Amino acid sequence: MTNRLAAGMVIFRRFDGDWRCLMLRAYRNWDFPKGEVEPGEDPLAAAHREVSEETTLAGLDMPWGERYVETAPYRGKVARYYLGESPDGTVSLPVSLELGRPEHHEFRWVGVGEARLLAPPRLQSVIDWAAQYVMHADPAPSRSDHNP
């Protein structure tokens, strides 16, 4: 069985010199902006599209290059996450035309420690992967990294 591919971003922003990442809540589930890659769509383009559709953020920087990491399969899909930086812009949760309501109920800019507390087990390695680049490494133009 082939798993569907979803693409999204772990988005970081500096607040008073500290890095925080954007997390979205749908019901009791916290995640990063992401959604299914449409047929023929480039996964990175899908990640940018999903961020814009779910948060209204656009024009993200990618100072860490186009590297990504993928989750293990879950519920028939694999989620690929890229790293992005939002230097400014207001997050809002717009109404989805398909749902007639916003896809998410809440957003938070959180530190890595709080992200680990909010995130489900399948995202723990994604958070660790993102933190190693954002907190501890210089930006580099690598295309991809191994799966966690």
Percent range for β-strand residues? 25-35%
Top-tier CATH class: Alpha Beta
- The total beta strand count reads 9
Overall tally of structural domains: 1
Report the average pLDDT across residues. 91
- Identify the CATH homologous superfamily: Nucleoside Triphosphate Pyrophosphohydrolase
Termini separation comes to 21 Å
CATH fold category name: Nucleoside Triphosphate Pyrophosphohydrolase
**Low-confidence segments, ≥5 residues, pLDDT <50?**
138-144
Principal-axes geometry comes out as: globular
Helices, by number, come to 3
Structure classification: alpha+beta
Question: Which architecture name does CATH use?
Answer: Alpha-Beta Complex
Portion of residues within helices: 10-25%
User: From N to C, what is the helix and strand string?
Assistant: EEEEHEEEEEHH
Instruction: Report the sheet with the most strands, covering strand number, pairing sense and barrel closure.
Output: 7 strands, mixed
Q: Radius of gyration, rounded?
A: 14 Å
Provide key terms for this protein.
globular, single chain, alpha+beta, 148 residues, seven-stranded mixed beta sheet, 23% helix, Nucleoside Triphosphate Pyrophosphohydrolase
Question: Could you describe the 3D structure shown?
Answer:
Helix content is 23%, strand content 32%. The strands form two sheets. Strands 1, 2, 3, 4, 5, 6 and 9 form a seven-stranded mixed β-sheet that branches. It has a two-stranded antiparallel sheet with strand order 7-8. It has helices spanning 43-55, 112-118, 121-134; strands at 4-15, 18-26, 29-31, 34-36, 68-70, 77-85, 95-96, 101-102, 106-110. It has one domain: Nucleoside Triphosphate Pyrophosphohydrolase, CATH 3.90.79. The protein is globular, with a radius of gyration of 14 Å. It starts with a strand and ends in a 14-residue tail after the last helix. The chain has 148 residues and is α+β, with helices and mostly antiparallel strands.
